Amino acid sequence: MNFLNDEKRRRSYRYFLCVLLFSGIIAIAISTWYMYFSRVPSTIKLRADAHETVDFNVPATGDIVKEAFSGSVKLDLSRPVIFKTGISNNNYIVDLKLFGIIPLKSVQIDIINDTKLMPAGIPIGIYVKTKGILVVGIGEFEGEGGKILSPGKYILQPGDYILSINGEEVKDKARMIEIITNGDGEAMVFVIERDEEEIELKLKPEQNKNGELKIGVWVRDNAQGVGTMTYIKEDGTFGALGHGINDIDISTLMILDSGSLYRTDIINITRGVNGAPGELTGFIEYNEQNVLGEITDNTPYGIFGSINVNSKAIRDGEFIPIGLKQDIRKGPAKIILSIIGEPTSYDVEITEIFLDNDNVNRGIVLKITDPALLSLTGGIVQGMSGSPIIQDNKLIGAITHVLVQDSTSGYGIFIENMIIR
């Protein structure tokens, strides 16, 4: 009897070891696959009419295919690959297989025009008007007899843009309030934009305890702030921030009707410490004399527009090449920042490079190492978003975020994401 029990225990033990071994092999295989998956970007950009080298050191192969043509070329990423590129705007697809067997990922290869940009690094005041009136919250109010009312509940929702009321276009919240309060109390027709679709809704305002007609929503029609200009192109267009302007309450990308850049002076620096990001405080006079340019696009990759023709003072700089993500290496780099006068270069260290990060604003991890900047700001602070990152005399990216628990460190966006949108 004891013999049978011992044999049963041995079998159970062997079964457990086999399961453990099998699970370990599966875990190692998955982690290895993911490691190689992360090493290769989903999109590889190459300069037109050039010899471009990529070296990802991944044991993967695939056939490069141009959709409009038949035929293919074998690609082996286990060793450095030299591309002789042709004209820009050519796009290719390659389906990579690990060890030539296991599907890894589909990669798009884009041929882009080589370009030079002027790193800016200057503080900018930002003022943008939303497209229509942005709903940021649904509220309640007290009506006659103490009744709690919320007419907008279940009809409007945060993130909606009110475009018109009873056929009249509304561009500012003061006019929206005026239309509602001067109405007859009957249901009104609201045209809104929700998830890029225009929708027509009916909403009946209600009287509050003072007899005023309300719909019970919180709204916003503009946003203001301070940031940093990243670059200026030779045609006078610019890119800034490295991330979009999101509404502070609902954290969604704001849809713009118009926007302006203003000259600003940094008047105060709140130093960052671990756990509490610092901030640059700018003084902005919102008048025509201080307008630097027009904001035309608000995207996840930054804000973009054109420089005012009268703002020639900020164009007097050197145009330098861009560095694509495969050109970047861990090690010393510089950022350009103008917080005490003229744009100044400060030392940083690039500590990580995520070639295929799902978050487009966090492909570069960097650490401030310059003693002068650390003394001034304590590291990366709010308002430094957009500060250009330079390595090997190439513009490779822009600062986007600070690590809250380490004020000396933060993230950056690849410059190729900012210029190809």
Strand order of the largest sheet: 9-18-19-23-22-20
Which structural class do you get from the secondary structure elements?
Answer: mainly beta
Terminal CA distance reads 75 Å
Structural shape? globular
Report the portion of residues in β strands. over 45%
Q: Which regions contain 5 or more consecutive residues with pLDDT less than 50?
A: none
pLDDT averaged residue by residue = 89
Q: Can you give the helix content as a percent range?
A: 10-25%
Count every helix, treating DSSP H or I runs of 4 or more residues as helices: 4
DSSP strand count: 30
Main sheet: strands, sense, barrel: 6 strands, antiparallel, barrel
Radius of gyration: 28 Å
Structure description:
With about 425 residues, the protein is mainly β. About 15% of the residues lie in helices and about 45% in strands. The protein has 4 helices and 30 strands. The chain has helices spanning about 1-40, 175-180, 370-375, 415-420, and strands spanning about 45, 50-55, 60-65, 75, 80-85, 90-100, 100-110, 115-120, 125-140, 140, 150, 160-165, 170, 190-195, 195-205, 205, 215, 215-230, 235-240, 255-270, 280-285, 290-300, 300-305, 320, 330-335, 345-355, 365-370, 390, 395-405, 405-415. It has a 6-stranded antiparallel barrel. It has a 6-stranded antiparallel beta barrel with strand order 25-26-27-30-29-28. Strand 16 and strand 17 form a beta hairpin. The longest helix is centred in the first third of the chain and has 38 residues, at about 1-40. The radius of gyration is 28 Å and the shape is globular. It starts with a helix and ends with a helix.
